[in-house]
């Protein structure tokens, strides 16, 4: 038997089978369960979704909920294996020119666009995915009319920033659109031209903002093209139902190559913002997993889970390429002062938070990029050692001295808001940190607010009104690809749409931009270390808190749960014992 827990790439395909008829029904009868018993219906992964995904549009997604769903439904040119190495997806091979500026991808021709008819339940075959679809998807992300907050990722392409920052009404707009460095050589060959060498570029083509998109679907559906009934996809699943704020349902695409090897035919669940409610459903055998994109185990239940003879066997913990952090809005007083930011960052007892609140074997963070990311400085204690001192009392004393130097002794005169998205777990962490700050700075007044996820993301946007923003906000960042460019340059460069801290430092920008085009890996690592020193140590634009772990629960009938450290959950590779699940449910 295969090991129950192992890591493989999202886009790895075990066997490629010829495409069948032009239409096939969704939710066909399930394959026989173990022991030859027929399942009562389609093999279904029952889960919960923790928040309403803001979008299913690859050009617009910025959050983990949306990206998780998009990766179930779309294939990109490349993917990632269990060691975060780039592997083929739609592309069978790729190569770079000698100067590193031109990348050529050869594509397979057996992956087709499909559309699920909500009335008949049949999948319509719309023809093969082509190089032209990749070109359209990339240019659509960069087109300012799309308003993609992730377009900055594609500034590495020749003409990318010029198009994205252009006035759509300008006389030369079409010229700018045509001038972007991506073109179809033929139906199965796409060529990218970069503005500077980037050895990590094959990782970029594994990101959703470069995924091919079916142009006719966008033009016909407009802003709702990515909703159930109108979305056109090319991956192992597609969207069958989206009751906004209530429920999501994805169904297997029977026309996808390798579909015969996909056991799980339906992924479904309600949208629930309460982790404790989800936990009750798990213990009642109503759902199969407690994991993203829904909920991991509630923090207050961790001790009980670890002590329970059955639940403890179902608990899964492993390192994850993510960092949990608090950001300071750098241009909002009093957090426009680096000394104030340093003081509040230093006054967080990270190890105590892990030991007493999160309890998921996380690691205290003193850098933004976590272990496992190329260019990370997580093991280099030259960077912000004052964040993770062995003696927390000494750490607090330093924090108090910095705040007094800034003109706020004991926090006198500081009134600030800490905001997080609605979540029981985030609330518990915020309350614990609030208590630490209250003890360190007894005269400061720090209040806590929360917002629903979609509203929260809009509040934090760099160009949102400053008066509507909190002083301090909670976010996590997980690897889109395992390189510090994805963390330091693409998040906190002053040009980035992800720079919610409004951090603007010319030296930092120069370092990360130089690192992006540097070919010597040792030089790149040193540049990223210097960038971390500015971001976290000197300027303290953010307060890294801990490096994530996967903390999940899986029912015993989940026989094969595959996780990719970059792309997350390739559910098409998962297996379950249907008979055992039905028996546990009394069916």
Shape: globular
Number of domains: 2
Report the count of strand segments. Answer: 24
Which residue ranges are poorly predicted, with pLDDT under 50 across at least 5 consecutive positions?
A: 1-39
Q: Any idea what the CATH superfamily of the largest domain is called? A: Periplasmic binding protein-like II
The secondary-structure class comes to alpha+beta
Radius of gyration computed on alpha carbons:
24 Å
Tell me the name of the CATH class of the largest domain: Alpha Beta
Question: How many DSSP H or I helices?
Answer: 18
Strand content: 15-25%
Query: Helix content range of the residues, please?
Result: 25-40%
Biggest sheet features? 7 strands, mixed
Any descriptors?
587 residues; alpha+beta; D-Maltodextrin-Binding Protein, domain 2; Dipeptide-binding Protein, domain 3; 2 domains; seven-stranded mixed sheet; four-stranded antiparallel sheet; 18 helices; 28% helix
Layout: helices, strands, pairs:
Blueprint: E1 5-6, E2 23-25, E3 44-46, H1 64-73, E4 78-80, E5 86-88, E6 91-96, E7 102-107, E8 112-116, E9 122-128, H2 131-142, H3 160-164, H4 173-178, E10 182-186, E11 189-193, H5 201-204, H6 215-221, E12 232-233, E13 237-243, E14 247-252, E15 266-270, H7 275-283, E16 289-290, H8 302-307, H9 311-314, E17 315-328, H10 338-346, H11 350-358, E18 363-364, H12 392-405, E19 415-421, H13 424-440, E20 445-451, H14 453-460, E21 472-478, H15 484-492, H16 506-517, H17 521-538, E22 542-554, E23 558-562, E24 575-576, H18 578-584
Parallel strand pairs: 1-23, 3-15, 19-20, 19-21
Antiparallel strand pairs: 2-9, 4-5, 6-7, 7-11, 8-9, 8-12, 10-11, 13-14, 14-15, 16-22, 17-21, 17-22, 18-22, 23-24
